[in-house]
Every structure is written in structure tokens, then in C-alpha cells.
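Researcher: We're teaching a course module on how sequence relates to structure. For the next exercise, students receive a sequence and then see the predicted structure as C-alpha cells, so they can try to spot secondary structure elements on their own. Here is the exercise chain.
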Amino acid sequence: MATFCCDVTPPLGEAIYSSYQPLATVEHPLLAKGIVLDDGRHRYVLCAVDWCELCNSTYALFRRRLAEAAATDVSLVAIQTVHQHTAPMGDADAFRLVDETENPPPHVPAKFFEETADRVAAAAKESLGRLQAFDHIATGEAKVDRVASSRRVPGEDGKIRVRWSACLDPALRAEPEGFIDPILKTITLARGDEPLVRLHYYATHPQSFYGDPRASYDFPGIARQRLEEEEKVFQIYFTGCAGDVTAGKYNDRSRQARDELAQRLYDGMKASIAATRLAPVGAFQWRTVPLTLSLREDAGYTLAENLARMADPKAAALARLEAAMAVAFIRRSDRPIELSCLRIGETQVLHLPGEAMIEFQRFAQQLKPKQFVAVAAYGDCGPAYICTQRAYDEGGYEPGASRVMPDSEAKLKAAIRQLLADE
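Model: And here is the predicted structure for the students to work with:
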């Protein structure tokens, strides 16, 4: 195995998500952190990027470049974004489309994605000279206290209220945490009892305060970096199925709240590490499943309507760019999204697309209750939110922001079953 890290922060002056104002300050460097695994037959690449999303051909570009760098097949590469909201939105297809309209809104230029993919690939290729043997794998888990909470809060009238990542409404913050997965999972690869890398998996939207022209890896990055500096062990953090999970119950947009979230997440990581149990490394297995999701065609979601919103010079920049992203996904929707599962002995890691709701993570773990199943979402984010049928029936923010149909639940769960199926 070998680890790699690359700074993927845009230059000052570029417009990044979610403000789409010129980047004025870099509070924290945005990083792509990954690992190359070699079992003697194949090389596998896992990578987590401190960006909001990678979509469509931009996601494919990063996978392809990493596969070339590691001298492996693209199907053996899984890239996920951490999903911070003080970071780039990676969708060159959408940005090219909006650039063809009158007075296009500012965004990161498409060439930045090419250049960044090349730099991440170069870091991965350089790491091959540092491949080292490992013979043990350790898994651990721990409950994270007062970080995650459901964004979907049922009201007395039966309607879903939205508890955003930063919530200033005391009544909403007083509501229960709701349906989440409070468990952080950690996988450690080791030589003997010496840890070489730790991979952490936890499901929450990873932002505290945002909407200003600042780059930050936010509270997950703060916790990750602190742990790496203290342990002197490479740390990678993956966001799970957090489509409907935020820190809103515990976050009032203040720096103090961010500090507290980072501390609690760090404490959860430390507790998960303390609970790890070493075992000899088992056989590798990598499985992929194609997923094709049905496009929404109801009012407000058609190609014609999104094209009109994208081209409207009077519309807000964010609305135009989101419409362009919808158009980009509609035009590539006939190409399946590839899901994957890495299995090492009895340890399994699912790599899922989009902003999948927490139900899918809980479902995967319930399929294998006696095994260790970690879940990383935010792979190809072309579909945006992937929701349950019930969410569409109830309403609320997530189904309104989805680009795919309610039958997505059945399709994604069928794919998860295939990925986790016994031989």
C-alpha cells in the first residue's frame, strides 16, 4: 500500500461553491488524500477529495487519470468528495454549457479540473515508489456525540421542516436528532501492530458556516488534520450517506460551534481507534455494479425548463449553475454510474454516488449485521440527491433537489444487495 496527498485548492480569485464569489482567502488547504492498494494481482485506488462534488465527465476524468497513474483499470478506482461547502463544485460539463449563454455567471474554469486531475494523478504515481507491505487490518467504531442530526424535522401539521446545516431557529435546534447513523467507523491497515493508514467513515453534511468567499476543509478536515499531526499516521476521511443529515441541531454558524463539532468528531475518531482490533489481512475482492437512474420529467425538472433557467441572465448565479448541472446530467443520464465494493477479508467498503440519504447506509449495514460494512457516498454526484420513496411522498428539501425519480430507492437498494451478496 501507498498513500498520497495533493493540494487541490483553486487559485485566489476563482469563484467557488457556495458563494460563487471570487475566492478571497484560504483558511485551510483543500486536499485530495488517497491510498493505492496492491494485492499482487491488481491495484485499487481509494481517494477522498475536499471538494463539494465531482460530477459527470469531471468525475470520470479524475478516475481515468488515477487509473493511468496507478497502472490499473478505471473500474478499480473509487473517488468520493467530502462535500464541504467552501470548496469547488466539479462539473466541467455544466460550466461549458452555461458559458454559451448570455452573461454567464462566474465559476472555476474547466481547465482547472484538467490541471488538478493531472496533479492528483502525479501524486498517486509518485506514491508507487513508496509501496510498502502490510499484513494486518483493524476495524473499530464509536458513537459520535452531538454532531449529526436529521435535516428532515416533521412538524405537527405533518409537513417536513428543514433544519439546515447552520440553524439559527432555537425551536428547530431543540427537536430530536432524528434518523441518523451516529457511528463513526475506522479501518486501519498495519504492518504488525504499526498503523500505516487510517480510513474514517461518518455520515453528516460537513459544513459549519459557509456562503462566503473562503476555502476551508471545515470541521472534518480540522479533526482529520489534528489526528494526523498527533498520531503521525496518514488519515483519510470519507462522508457517508449524509443526504438528509447535517450538523444543524448543534450548529449556529459560529466559530465556537465549529470548534465544538471538530472536537466531538475528533473524539469519535479517537474512540473508534481505541476500539480497533487487529487481524491478519484477508483476501481482496473488488466488485462493481452499474446503476442507471430514471430522470425526473415532472414540472420544473424538464430539459427545456432547465435550459431556460440556465440561459436567463436575470436569474441568480447559483440558480443558473444548478440548472446547468441538471442539463449536464440529463444529457449523460443514459450512461450508467458505476458503484463498487472493496472487500478485505470480512471488512467491506461500499462506494456510492450522489447525495444518498442515510436510509441507504443503514440498509447496507442491516444486510450484513455480523460484518463490518463502511459506506462512502458522494461519488459521481450527477444525480444530486438520491432519496427514498417515502421522502418524495412527504416532501421537503431533498426530493425537491433531486434530479432522479422516486424509483431510485429500489434501484439503489438492488445495486447494494448485489455489491454485498455472498459468492
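Model: If you want an answer key for the exercise: The mean pLDDT is 98. The first helix runs from residue 56 to 70.
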